[in-house]
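Justification of computing resources. Each target in the renewal requires a structure prediction run like the one illustrated here; the chain below, 50 residues long, is used simply to show the kind of job we budget for.
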Amino acid sequence: MTDEVHYCIPCSLMGALVHTLLIKKQLMDIFCYRAAKIRAWADQQKKSVS
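Resulting structure tokens:
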């Protein structure tokens, strides 16, 4: 599975700062959470098939 996120933050200098301080971490948290949930679901599916 591959994710591709496109977004544009206005105000180039302030936007870059906001991206670095807030948005980048939030995006990583969202996708790490989703990956963990998918992994847990897949593990559960394997157990139910065995």
